[in-house]
Amino acid sequence: MLQVAFTVHPAMSFGDTLQAANALIVGASQGIGLGFVRQLLSDQRYSRIYATYRNPERADALFALQKEHPRLQCVPLDLTDEGQIEGAIATLQPTTPQLHLVLSCVGLLHEGDLQPEKSLRQLNADQLLRYFQVNSIGAALLAKHCLPLLKHSQPSVLAAISAKIGSIGDNQLGGWYGYRASKAALNMLFRTAAVEYSRKSPKTILALLHPGTTDTQLSQPFQRGVPPEKLFPVERTVAQLMAVIEQLEPADSGEFFSWDGSRLPW
Ligand SMILES: NC(=O)c1ccc[n+]([C@@H]2O[C@H](COP(=O)([O-])OP(=O)(O)OC[C@H]3O[C@@H](n4cnc5c(N)ncnc54)[C@H](OP(=O)(O)O)[C@@H]3O)[C@@H](O)[C@H]2O)c1
For 16-30, how does the pLDDT look when each residue is reduced to its tens digit (9 = 90+)? Predict the structure, then answer.
């Protein structure tokens, strides 16, 4: 009897393919984004790293890294301005027509008078719009403009830092209307973009990532009730999320992952 032997090739994860990679970290002036830049600079598989900042007055740490590392280039970008997204892409495209990792670490929870709402009485249309502009729409426009650079013969990843609090199925506590809703919208926008990317750029994996409560200026006013073992230093969060990113396979595109690699409910 004729026997045919099949060799089963396990799917390659993103990390298996990393070599001479180019990365773009958006929202890198502080917090988790800055931590990712530090991590990538210590990883020789990345040959070029672009990092964006919004306000030069808050980007000293990033500029200091650029002075030390010629592989790093800082690019100004306010993610709420589509023209600036186009400008940032136009800056890097001539020297770097291919990107392998694009990661949006942009997020807003509080900003001056804008504070997370505790009740319906505090809902305000301008504040809700601001949350959506920064937390949802910006990353979707990034997905729009990065497609030509992520579409090439090698695997690539486009990830956005979301938040478990944006999970509709997991919402038992209520409150924080704008932040929750804007992260849920981010999840839907990325999930939808993943469907389109699967047709137009099938080697790109889109992912939404929950970092866990991390010690940054964003969480700082709300850390009081958090047990110390559940408040991650930035370095730990970055290492955990990097492990999740490296394990991504094409079948994972459009999914919502927690810091330990588990899938979160929508
Ligand atoms: N920390 C946590 O516990 C936690 C938990 C769950 C999810 N997250 C998510 O994780 C991500 C990173 O947060 P983080 O804790 O690192 O906060 P962070 O320290 O406040 O960093 C946020 C970054 O986003 C940038 N940014 C804000 N608005 C922007 C805009 N319009 N255009 C461009 N950049 C903008 C900030 O730039 P500036 O320096 O100019 O302000 C900063 O670099 C966010 O998406 C956040 O929602 C954080």
Answer: 999 999 999 999 999
pLDDT in tens, 29-40: 999 999 999 999
Nearest ligand 1 atom to the CA of 78 is: 32
Q: Cβ atoms within 10 A of the Cβ of 120, count?
A: 8
Yes or no: say if 102 and 162 are a contact pair by the CB < 8 Å rule.
no
Residue 218 CB less than 6 A away from ligand 1: yes
Pocket test for ligand 1, best of 24, 25, 32 (most atoms within 8 A of CB): 32
CA distance 10 to 219: 39
Each domain of the chain, given as residue ranges in start order, spans 14-258
The structure's pTM equals: 0.96
CATH code linked to domain 14-258: 3.40.50.720
d(CA 108, CA 116): 10
